[in-house]
Each structure stands twice: as structure tokens, then as C-alpha cells.
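Notes continue from the previous slide.

Worked example: a multi-chain complex. Inputs as given:
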Amino acid sequence: MNERRLQIILLVAGTVLVFAFSLAPFFYMALVSFSADHEFLAHGVEFEPTADHYEAVLTGSSLHFLDYLRNSLIVSALSAAGAVMFSALAAFAITRLALPGKLGILFFVLIVSMFPQIGIVGYLFKLMSSLGWINTYMALVLPYIAWTLPLSLWVLVGYFSQIPRELDIAATVDGCNRWQILWRIIIPVAAPGMFSVFLLAFIFAFNEFMFALMLTTDASARTVPVGIALFQGLHGQTPWGDIMAASVITTLPVIVLALIFQRRIISGLTQGAVKG
Amino acid sequence: MIFQRRRTSAAFGLCAAIVLISMLASLFVIGQGCGNRGPRSLVLAVGGAPSELDAWESLIEQFTSETGIAVTLLRQPTDTDLRRQGLVTALDSRQSDPDVFLMDVAWLGQFAASNWLEPLDPYVEQEVIETEQLFRQVVDASDRYQGRLVALPVYVDGGLLYYRKDLLAQYGYDAPPATWPELVEMAQKVQQGERQENRSFDGFLWQGAQYEGLVCNWMEVAGSAGGGFVIGDSTIKLNTPANNEATTFMHDMIHRYEISPRNTFTEMKEEEVRLAFQRGNALFQRNWPYAWPLHQADDSPVRGKVGIAPLPSFADGQSVSCLGGWHVGMSRFSDMKDEAAQLIAFIVSYETQKLLAMELGWNPARTDVYSDEEVVAAAPHLAELREVFEHLTPRPNLPYYTLISQVLQRELNSVLSGRQSSQDALLSAETQAQKIMEQYGTP
Amino acid sequence: MARPDESHSAPPRLRRWRDWTEIRTATLFVLPVVAVIAAFVLVPVIGTLVNSFYRDVTILPRRFIGFDHYRDLWASQSFRQSLWFTTMFIVASVPLELALGMIFALLLDVRTVVRGLMRACVLVPWAVPAAVSARVWQLIYAYNHGAANWLLSNLGISGQVNWLGSDVGAFAAVVLADVWKTTPFVAIILLANLQAVPRELYYQARVDRANFIQTFFHVTLPLVKPGIIAALLFRTIDALRIFDLVYVLTGGGPGGSTNSVSLYAYSYYLNGSFGYGSAASVVLFLMALVLSILYVKLGRFRAEGA
């Protein structure tokens, strides 16, 4: 019985620790974002609540935060949509059709996903400048699609192969061709899985830093992570309050997404990671 | 089964909606991406704070109304490295825009050697651009590359010592320090006294973080000991006794005399220094002239208590101030060179320089603006600064300067953090710099 | 988790007749994926490799120089420092993340009222951009007013710690921030494995009067081993290319002590020195390639063994 009690104590303590560990930095982030002076923990500085930082970030055009946010949303949505589309086609071929070397393709794609971005970004920079695409959405969307494809493909192959084969045999008997099988049978059944993939690809693109840092030059295409990393104030100081306000605004949708789609994200992640 | 169908089709609908929205967004993007500037419009790339961008906006409006030449402002970020990257990107891919842009003095070597800058001599000869009144020293040290004039200064900057007049008087000093040992002595005494009340008080703040500003600070201390970069035709020397003395001294200010805080080498850039000083948390600071009007602003706690002086030197040396500031140049790939020259002429004209000085507190690149009555009335400190600006020490005008600077920043910063002795660091920096010179100094 | 190669099972009679058109269609379906990856990953990788043999700077004409860049890399103390930092970072952060991730996964596996909420909360550090959370950590570690020093002084431990100003402090700061961000990922992978452990085994263990530590080591751990291997390799490769966190948090400082290989290469790209930056990237690329081949090999090994 003693052990049982110990277990319960450990469980409660552990749970509290997990919450504290995960959320404490966000708590601090929120505190700073509402404080007139970011040094409120320093000796002799008072905590003075204010919403000025939010006002600055949301209305001040000079910080360009809303531009960054718009860019991020558009770029991530496009990339995720592209990744889902392309990987759905390929996953269908891999799970449903005769294709020589399909395992090879899967492992090749897996290895590609492990390349370090730095080995790509230098040349990509040259490629994009010769195409005149630097500082446009295209410069980010296409590499992001390539970058998220491996994960999307692996997850979708996992989902597609779980769909009973009887369904497509029945459809073939009904006279459906392969496109129709993909559109009418596979995609509707795998829709939740595809939504997981969309979410994951979206998060990946939303979080990407290095490409965005090198391939964009200003607020017309720069994304939120780079924007927040490079936020500067009027004379080059670090406007901590504004940065934290922007961080809170960026984090809120992430928290909402995590709360609503917790199951979808986790199922996508485990499909992608446990394979192989 | 039916319920399940419903659910999956609902989820499918959601997915389809998202994909559809993305598609629409992409159309919107493509429509927007091919943004159209007017068919014949100059593009001027400037960056910086919003107030600076606003000033530029009204300047180009005026230019357009005077000349009828349309100008589009390309707004660059505040961060110096990123501004350079943005320009390098455009120029390296030979884009015709921007036509005219501002450059930090430290990049001029690279830009000129990359053959990106249109020589301005013909326009000076045709008297489109007037250069008579510009600081001659600055133009000669930075804007000429292989004899050709490739850029012009827009404003000049130099490192200064700011001090608290009230505190010096209170502790019995009647003048700011002329030598570094004096500075240490004053800083220690005042710091000890002030810390009774204010734990965050420091004697001397300067820029020690790992970035270009550290090189400027180092050049000033090293130069005042008779050191600095020693550059020959194919050699570069950094490991000299004077440099060693200066670098050790910078380390000692943090670790031995403890007049500079420990975050000097991790956090201190211009604004961190300026803000701490403005809060009243320091006796001395090394900073650029931009800090002056800010310290004198109405809401500044140190308003009226601040003095400026040349930076101290070592006993047998001379005060040295590092040349900073921004320069304007024309892209070699510009498709509107004559109009671009007119814009450059406008930027270095008396009226524009005066306006920039009045509105932004920028130190004019023209000597004649310093005696303008209105300017003197608005910014009395400018008169003093002019003296300093006549004797500024430029950073080496080498095409690969930024590579050498990067090495030096890292090595100096490691001395300040106590990871390396100054001798080892200077030797290591010298070896690396020498290698860079060998690699990039020959065609 | 069906293997893809067993998927095709058309009736044998039709097979020969259908094969050709089917392969053609299948190729068409796979083509976009292959094309995008080729254009935006493979071509750049090859381009980087080629570029690393050239002196490629903006200020001078491009010139072939063979292995000069690699020789210089090897001779460069700061490059070796960046290799060292990257290696030590992997060695310090990955085991910590695995250990902590295991504990998280065990907690997340227990049926409590807050389980769903806890799972969502754990996802948040993982889902927030690293650059954003690095900014928060930067403020936490700040010398004068940071939460870390405030906490220390309130706990009665005197003296301000200059977290980002010493080798050890900066290293620990980077590791801690990374552990915070990626432990959730590890926990979720392990959780999936944990949930696959048959409950009877736990029941059996209890019948055998094993305490929960024994149960963990003898029942749980062997069964989640595949998950541990997967997490280990994913994390190793991810840690190898660490960039955003050090870029924002330390900028590679103090004095280059937390300069990762990615950051090192980036700083040369930024200065327009593409050849040298490429060479440094190729070194990192080769390291990642070796690790990922190892991963695929281990993965196959498991597939056969399972």
C-alpha cells in the first residue's frame, strides 16, 4: 500500500512539474508583454501593467508584425496545401499501384528529410536570386513543400495503407478508374489523416527559420519567426515588451490549435516518427 | 456507418475548404507578387527606424516635386547585417533596382571591389554633384576605391565619451578624464559611492557584444595606445604590443577594475548602453552622437546632466574616434543613372543635409551645415562635434574587411569573456586575417 | 502499419496486361514529389558540393581551388570549435531529452482527469517557433533583470550569474532551452509505443510482486525500445543542425563558444563567402548522411527482427 501512495505522490508531483515546465516560460512571456518596463524583476523597478505593447504591435505599422503574420499564414497554408496534395498523389501510387522501387522512394525521401538546411540554403539563395524570386512567397513556398514532403508522405502512406483494399476492389468493379478511386474512396476516408498532415506541415512551415532568414529581405515576405528574432526598436534597441506581445499573439493560435487538434497532431506525429 | 460517413465527409469538407482557401490565397499572392512600380521610377533603398523612413519619405516627395523624377522608397530593415544582405542579394543578381542606396561605411570596400558601384567622378566633373563642402578626410578615406569616387557620405559618426557632469562634480572632479587610468580611477570611486543607493550602477559602459561595434570600440582603445590595424601590401598585423596592452585593458575594465558590468560582452550594443546610461545607471558611456539628443529629451532622467568629450587615451597616446556613418552610392546596374545622380546630388545638398540634421539629429557630412544658425540653435553640440569629425579613424578600406572583422569580433569577444589571453587571441586573429588576405587579396 | 510493398495485389490473370499502364500512372503520381524534392533539395545539395571547390566570393572572379576550403576548415580553430560545440550539444541534450521524455510519456500514459489537457500543454513548446521561444529564454537569462537570476536571488543563492557570458553558462542555457522545446516531441513518440504495451503484462508484473521500478525496467523499457531508437536518431540528426536557437539566444557567443556548424557556415554566407560556407555545410551534410543511413539501417533491422 505504501508503494501505491508513493506512486500517487509521484504522479501528482510529476503532473504539476510537467505543467510548470511547459508553461512557465509562457507565463513569463505574458507578464513581460503586459509590463511597462521589461526590467520589472530588477532591483527598484515596479511592475506597471499596460497594454501599450499590444497596441504598438497591432497598430504600429513600423514593426510590421501584422505583415509578418500575414506572410507566415499565407506561406504556411500554401506550403501545407502543396505538401498534402503532392504527397497524397504519391502515397496513393505507393500504397495502391504497381510501382517498381517504391521502398527505395520512401527511404530516399526519408534520408532527404535528414539533410541539414544549411547545406541547401546557400545554393537556394543563388537559385532564387537568379530567378528573381528573393523576397517573394515563391522563394519560401517551394522549398517548404520540398522540406515537408518527406514527413507528409510517410504519414499519408501510413494512413492510406490502413484503408481496407476491399473498398477499391469494389470501386473497380463499379467501373471507377484510378483517379476516381483516389478522389472518391481514398481521400474521403483518409480525410482526418490528411488533415493531420496539413496541420503538421503547417506547423513545420510556420516554425521554419533559416530559409526565411536568408531568402527574404523585408516585410513583404518575411515570416513571424524571423520577424520576432530581428525585431528592433527605434534606434536599434531590443523592444522586449513588443517582442513578448508579438510572441503571445503568435503563441495563442498555437495553443488553441494544440487544444482542439491535440489528437490529430499526435496521431500524425506518431505515424511519421514511429515508422521505419 | 451512416454517421461515420457524415463525419468523414465533414472532415473532408474542412480539408477541401482549407485547400480552396489556400488556392485563393495563392491567386491573391500571384496577383500581388508581380507588383508594379511605375514604368520609370527610381528606387531608393534606405533602412532604419520609422522616423528615419518618414523623413526619407518627405524628402523624396520634395525631390519629385523639384525634378519631376518619381522615386520609390524601398524600405529596408533596421539591422545593419540584414540591410547589407538585402543589397548584396539584389546587386549580386544584377537587378536594376534599387538604383540608389545607403551603405554602412564598413561595407564600402566589399561593394566597390565587387564592382557594384557606379563611379561618380563624371557627375562631379559635369557639376551635377557638388562635393566641395563634404568632409574631405571622410571622402578620401572611405569613398574612393582605386582612385575612383564610388560613394558619398550622407552623415558622419564618431565615438564619443559621455559623462555625468553632476556626478563628477559631486565626487570632486572638475573635468572629464583625459587618460584611461584617470577614467578607471574616477569610475571606481563614483561607482563605489553610488552603489550604496543604486545596485545597478556601473562606472563605464561600452559596446562589447560580438558585432561590428566591438571592433569600433577596440580601434579606439587600441588607437589611443598607438595601435590598431597594421596593414601592408600583403601583410596584416594585429599582434602588436600596443594592441595587446589595449585589449588587456578592455578585459581588465570588466574583470579587474570591475567598472564595466559582466554583461558587457554578451548584451552591450549601442542601445543597451544608451538606455542604461539614460536610466542614470552609469557614470561614463562610449557611444555615437545619436545618443545626445535622446539624453536631452524632455522625459530623459539625465537631461542637462550629460557632457561629451573626446575619448580618453593612454599616457603617451592620442584620443581616437572611430569613423562611422552611412554613405550613398549608385548601382552599376541602374537603368536610370542620370536621374540617380540627381538624387544623390539632392541627398548631399545643403538643404537636405540641414533637414536631416534638424529632424533626425544626424551629423551632416557637409562642413558648412555645422555653422548654419538654425542648426546650431537646434543642436548646439554639433559645433563641438565638428572638431572630433575632422580627426576620425576609418576602419581598413579592404574588400574583405567584413570577413576580417568577423574574425576579430569573435577573438576579441573571447578575450572579454575571459576565455583567452589577449596575446593568444590577437595572434589567432592575425593568423586568420592573414589567411583571408592571402585568399581574397589576389585575383 | 502495413508495409507498402505488400500492398499491390491485383488478380494474377490481369497482372501482365495492366502492369505497363499502371506503372505509367503510378510514375505520374509520384512525379510531383520527386520533382519538387529534386529541384529544391537535391539540386541545391549538389550545387553546394560543387561550390565548395570554388573560391566563390562577390569581390573576386570565381575560380576553381580544389580542396583548399576543406584544408582551411580543418586548420581553422573556430571551425573545430563549432564541431566540438555541435557534438557536445548532441551528447548533452539528446540523452536528457530522452530521459525526461520517458518520464513525460509515463505520466501522459496514466489515465487522470487532466490527461487531455496535459497532452495539449506539452505540445505547445514543440509547436511554438524556436526563434520565438529563444527570445523568451534570452530574456529569462538576461543578466540584470532576467527571471533566472531573479529566481536564484529569491532562493537565497546570492550573486548574479552571467548565464550567456561564460562557456559553461551559455552551453547550459542552450541545452536547457532545447530540452524544453523538444522533450514533448520525444514524449509523444514514446507515448505511442507505451500505449501499444499490452495491459496484461503490467497485470502480470503486479502478480509477480514487481515494484514499479522493476516493472519499468523489465516490462516497459524493452517494449518501447523501438520508440527510443527512433527518437534517439531523429533527435540526434535534428540537434546536429541546430541553428535558430543559438542564432537568437547566444549568437554563437561568448567568443564563438556556442557557434554551431550551421551558424558558422551561415556567417560566411552572410559575408558573401559562398565557397567557404558551402564547404562547411558539406561537412555537416556528410555527418547527417552517415547518421541517417545508420538510421535507415537500424530501422530495417528492426523491421526484420519484429
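Summary box: The beta strands of chain C are 54-55, 63-64. The radius of gyration of chain C is 24 Å.
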